[in-house]
Each structure stands twice: as structure tokens, then as C-alpha cells.
Amino acid sequence: MKVIKVEAKKFSDKILSMKGISKKTVEEHLKLYQGYVNKYNEIQEKLSALKDDDFVKANQVFSTIRELKVELSFAWGGVINHEIYFSHLGGKGGKPADSLLKQIEKDFGSFENYKKDMKATAISARGWVWTGFNYREGRLVNYLGDSQNTYSMWGVEPLVALDTYEHAYFIDYGVNRGGYVDSFFENLDWKVVEENFQDIVGCCGEGCDCE
Ligand SMILES: [Fe+2]
Description:
globular; 3 strands; 3-stranded antiparallel sheet; binds fe (ii) ion; 8 helices; 2 domains; mainly alpha
């Protein structure tokens, strides 16, 4: 495997002064993100250094190549999930505008229904909740993961990522995950989410440059 080194992204300073999600929580959380970046790079190095013997000994119960491939997926999930998460925090909450709000209302009935579904999905998850766009069905869906790399839905691209691991809220909320989810929405920067949405579906709404 060719090594393509990932570098940790810098995020807005606004994520260090949010309401309801403390600076301490974010600072500790960013250390975990850096850890995923480091491990992703380390695993790539190990994959690139595999010997013929490692390929010969490939085994589904235990083998070096199996363990590296499994953890590559986990580390990559940790990188991407946290980059979406930190990039769209530090905002003022509220509602999205224009085409994204219309899409949410079409797919969930109302913005309130979307948030209700997202909160319940978050409380049901053991790792992550995403809002993703299902390319084939042309609609948004809220889905959950019990770790960084489960349960991906093929052909669904995430535009919102909500971390439900305890490290994301336990300092501030203890076991009250619902309170944390409310704070997540109060600090969500919908402008960033709208940009994610436009990157996925292409810009064709009011104010866009597209023909
Ligand atoms: Fe996390």
C-alpha cells in the first residue's frame, strides 16, 4: 500500500468557546482526533512494509494483514468523522437555509421531526450518528454507528456527524446524553452543513453559479 500521510486539520477557535460543550471537553477530544490521524499514518506504514510471508499467512481468524486492514478502517473513520464534527461546530444553531431546509422538510416532514429523529438515533447509538444523503434514493437519512467504522450505509454520504462516544460529553453532562445532543444543535454551524450538502448534491439553488 502506498503511504498517503494525513495531517490533522486546524479547526475554528470558536469550538473552544461554545455554550454547553466546554473548552476542556473539546481540548481533550482534539487529542483523540490527533491520535486517529497518527494511527492512520502508522497503519499505512505497516501495510506498506508487509513482507511476502505476511501475504502467505493471510487468515480470517487472525493474521497481520487482517488486523491492519480492520484498524485502517477504524482509524480512517476516526479521522473523517471527527473532521466533519469539529468543522461544523462553533455556530449559532437555528435552522439551515434554502435548499437544505427544503430537503429536510421533504424527507422528514418538518425540521422538528428531523431533530426528533436525530436525537432519538443519537440516544440509540454507541458511537456516531450521521445525517447522510442517499444518492440512489435522492434523500437524507439519519443513521447510526456503534464505532468509527460501523454501520456504514453504502452510497450514503454524511453531511452531519454527531459524536455520541462518552468522551464527547461525559465531562459536561455525565450520563445525560440528551442534554449534550441539545447543545450540539445549539452550536451547529448550518452554513458549513449547507456547504457539505452542496458539495454532495451540486449547487443548483438560488444564488448558485451553476447554469
Ligand atoms: Fe470522538
